[in-house]
Design brief:
Largest sheet of chain A: 5 strands, antiparallel
Oligomer: heterodimer
Order of helices and strands of chain A: EHEHHHEEE
Strand content of chain A: 15-25%
Helix content of chain B: 25-40%
Organism (chain B): Dioszegia hungarica
Strand content of chain B: 15-25%
Largest sheet of chain B: 8 strands, mixed
Number of helices of chain B: 11
Protein name (chain B): Methyltransferase type 11 domain-containing protein
Structural class of chain A: alpha+beta
GO molecular function, one term (chain B): tRNA binding
InterPro entries (chain B): AlkB_tRNA_MeTrf/Diox, SAM-dependent_MTases_sf
Shape of chain A: globular
Strand order of the largest sheet of chain B: 4-3-2-5-6-11-10-9
Keywords (chain B): Methyltransferase, Transferase
Distance between the termini of chain B: 23 Å
Order of helices and strands of chain B: HEHHEHEHHEEHEHHEHEHEEE
Structural class of chain B: alpha/beta
Number of helices of chain A: 4
Chain lengths: 124, 399
């Protein structure tokens, strides 16, 4: 499944695509919400690695407006729950992820994003 | 590249330095021994020597990727066995709630182990057939209570999820070993188990190591991001079921002489050895009975070919392997890291003895990424390496 936590880690890797290669933009998305128990310790450990603006923009593009513009310094339980929902409960089953820099489209099928590139598209 | 023999762990030493602080599961490694009596195997396909062509990408497409897709269901049946002990130890030694990448992770064999250890694992593989299994597993980073939505056990049995069908949350990404589709600094650890040996040139293997290290957190202070790599060994034990002997000859005893000779060379071009082979996979017809494993735990967990049984015309497919000789895996990781600008910190046994290699004399001009090899060893017909990476800010003097 592509949860938004994974999406927040993926970037375009087409050869010479270094500008605006993150975050990839969702389109034609089939979104499934799977509720689960939050693990605040996990969320706190992952926070430093988050790209917050990318997460907020992506969540909003999928219709979730619960995250504040700026990453909170002190988290309330309510905010942690909202973060858990966005990162861990929103699953993209089908759709596309498009690079804003080069336009490459990474399709998602059966919950698996295809990050494979042809040999000539790969750097080095 | 030079190899410092004094820091090259023998298999036995390497195993003992692995995963410090959590050694209870380390088993005494069995040293490879020459095959004594040639108990002739039953009629069974033998490995075939293989010489990569000028198009390694195409070679791997036909001799690795297509084969895995074809054998995926069968392969998965053989890969839900218990995890290799050193990898389990490695995962359990990580700080809780770490998130890591399993590059070439196939059907997600180590996802359950990672869950037990309280860490998350993202599985990346080229084979959609194998990933289909990996994604049926529960997602990481969740609480221990019940899922509210469907009343499902979040901490429940993995098998239950597999039975339940395709509604798991196992994080899967389709990509190969040189897929650079990850932001930098997102993973606390990375593993690549029995995968890099499918790449058919030294350049591609180095690239795989570089790509594996790339998305790791490079921290200025502990906890540092860690990695572990397993590959098949050229030096097979006499009990090995891989049966490389027919083409590679009996395993060479690991004496000091042979070790020195191998380390002195590049490790890649030893003419007397056939390191590049096509290994047969006997694809049994569905429901074919299989002979039970023959007892020895580590061997059984890592046998790669099902035991031959009389069955109607099993299909034989061949996968490409590069078999690593002693010292080669360490050389590969070190040379790959150096090529990418890493400083190699000495892999000394004592905490106080941290030293840098010859590149230490280079001036520090910017933040310096470093790599440290924590252990190297041979276990049950495989070579493994474990290490960590970090960054030394300019403001700090070199060690």
């Amino acid at each position: 499944m592509v949860r938004l936590i994974t999406h927040n880690m993926l970037a375009c890797h087409v050869k010479n695509c270094t500008k605006d290669n993150f975050p990839l933009v969702f389109s034609e998305v089939e979104l499934v919400i799977r509720e689960s128990e939050a693990n605040y310790d996990f969320l706190r450990r992952f926070m430093p690695k988050l790209d917050w603006p990318a997460l907020v923009d992506t969540a909003r593009s999928l219709g979730d407006e619960t995250l504040p513009d700026d990453q909170p310094e002190e988290w309330t339980d309510e905010q942690l729950q909202a973060l858990h929902h966005v990162l861990m409960e929103m699953h993209v089953e089908e759709g596309n992820m498009t690079c804003r820099g080069c336009g490459h489209v990474y399709p998602i099928s059966n919950g698996i994003p295809n990050m494979l590139l042809a040999e000539h598209e790969v750097g080095r | 590249m030079t190899t410092d023999l004094s820091t090259e762990s023998s298999p036995a030493e390497g195993s003992q330095t692995a995963v410090k602080g959590s050694e209870r599961q380390n088993r005494e490694p069995k040293l490879p021994r020459p095959v004594k009596a040639k108990a002739p195997p039953k009629p069974k396909p033998e490995p075939i020597p293989y010489r990569p062509t000028s198009n390694p990408g195409e070679d791997e497409q036909t001799a690795v990727h297509e084969v895995y897709e074809a054998i995926a269901p069968h392969f998965s049946q053989t890969r839900h066995k218990k995890p290799w002990p050193l990898i389990s130890t490695f995962l359990h030694s990580l700080p809780p709630n770490s998130v890591g990448l399993d590059s070439g992770g196939g059907n997600g064999k180590y996802v359950p182990t990672a869950r037990e250890a309280g860490v998350g694992l993202v599985v990346m593989d080229r084979s959609l057939g194998l990933l289909g299994d990996a994604r049926r597993q529960p997602g990481f980073g969740l609480g221990k209570g019940k899922g509210k939505g469907k009343g499902r056990e979040v901490e429940g049995d993995v098998a239950a999820y597999e039975v339940a069908g395709s509604d798991g949350s196992g994080e899967c990404v389709r990509g190969d070993l040189t897929c650079e589709g990850w932001r930098r600094g997102v993973f606390d650890f990375a593993i690549s188990i029995a995968a890099i040996h499918h790449l058919s040139t030294p350049l591609r293997r180095r690239r795989a190591v570089q790509v594996l290290l790339q998305p790791l957190v490079h921290a200025p202070k502990p906890p540092y991001a860690r990695f572990m790599i397993y590959v098949w060994a050229y030096e097979q034990s006499s009990g090995s079921k891989r049966r490389m002997g027919a083409t590679t000859g009996p395993p060479v005893p690991l004496t000091a002489e042979t070790a020195a000779r191998e380390s002195a060379g590049t490790g890649e071009q030893e003419p007397a050895k056939v390191q590049d082979v096509l290994v047969p996979w006997v694809l049994q017809p569905p429901k074919a009975p299989r002979t039970p494993s023959t007892g020895e735990s580590s061997g059984a967990a890592q046998s790669d070919e099902p035991v031959q049984v009389p069955a109607p015309e099993p299909q034989v497919l061949h996968r490409y392997y590069h078999l690593f000789v002693q010292g080669e895996l360490r050389d590969l990781v070190v040379s790959a890291a150096k090529e990418d600008g890493y400083r190699v910190l000495g892999s000394t046994e004592g905490e106080s003895g941290e030293t840098e290699d010859e590149s230490a004399s280079e001036p520090l001009s910017s933040d310096t990424r470093w790599i440290k090899i924590r252990g190297v060893g041979w276990e049950a017909d495989n070579w493994w390496i474990e290490g960590e990476v970090g960054i030394r800010p300019v403001s700090l003097p070199p060690v």
